[in-house]
Design a protein that fits this description.
single chain, mainly alpha, 23 helices, globular, disordered C terminus
Amino acid sequence: MAATVSISGETVNRLEARTSASTSQTPNRTTIFRVCAKSCGPSATRPQTPLVPTYRNCFATPQFTPLFLATAGSVGAGTLRGLALAVLVYDATDSPLLAALSLFGSHFAQVAGAMTLLSVADRVPPRLALVAIHLIGAVGTVVLAAPGLPVAWIFVVIGVMGLVGSVHGGVRWGLLGEILPAGHYMVGRSIFNMSVGAMQIAGFAAGGALVALVGARPALMAAVGVGLMSAAIARFGLARTPARASGRPSVTETWRVNVALLRTPVRRWLYLAAWVPQGLAVGNEALFVPYDPAAASVLFIAGAAGMLAGDLVIGRWVPPAWRSRVLTPVLVLLGAPYLLFVFDLAVPVAAAAVAAASGGYASGLILQQRTVDVTPPALRGQALGLHSAGMFTLQAVGASIAGAIAQWTSVSVAIVAMATLTIGSTFWLALGLRRASGAPVQAESAVRAEARWSG
């Protein structure tokens, strides 16, 4: 439709040019009628029909496919690295807490990154930032694979990688929102989330096989190769584009924009709803290795499959009008199936419960779209980066809480306790979000003020 309107406009311009060139006198009535029929007729005045948000339209958008492939590779590398590292640390320490922290401990550094580095997300060219992040991740994984590296130094390297990775979400999702047409963000993000599920399935399956066949350190080196592939895709597949915001990134700028983002009550509750239930639910996943070391990869794969299915249902089939209504039930789903772990479950039953619970991660799609809707374009990169950094941080907190409970009681007790906390926090957050959403005029005024301030 856009092309049709553009062609019609060019036809009008050419016709008017020929008319004015052929005579210096006032055009006759026939010519005027024909020009008006072209420029004012139904085909010209009919409003453009926006593209329907579909998976096909997203992949047809320039820059989408290379960003998708680079992200998928990054997730695959992270999955391989996390599983191999958890096995390595658990074998060395026999500690459920340290195994959980090796899997999710890098997320603690997201707090420091969110407070100091997030302004990079909007103030550095996206391609440059993505290539640097992928390369730093690969180098860090090489260090982790070094034989004889003390456990304490393993956690130092994990912390540095987490600090750098705190910027990744803001750069990646800010670029996604920039390249997709209006109204396509949630569908595009659901594609990425489903690829996360698929790559986690592949990563956990490959990681489990590599650890069993050749050991944890060779599995870490395989993660290095996948990470370098992601860096190459980002470098040669993405176009060089300017930063979304002017100015140099700095700690001061990061704090200034964070304050602007958190000033609006509805956005604060959206962040909490995205951070707390998912962070607590991840605590259960951090216990899969100590729960059943032989079946841990099966449980991880079941969780990835459930997350993929949930994103498909919410992102593709749930109408926009229903998304706010299903938000609370989907968040409750994060915890409810884990209550079954009070019993001694067979592996297939445990895997089914994990898959069902992981469908609840699709709540993030709804919350991310609402965050985009209440955030000015100039702040969206950092807003989505803060969303990711806070979520990863709470995941590390959830893993630590779950590991500590398991350390002093049992793994099954810890899983049931985390499920109960997940459900309780969901109902508390649902009430707060409902109250904050009841003041749309004030929220919109704050958004306009933020847009002026960030300009």
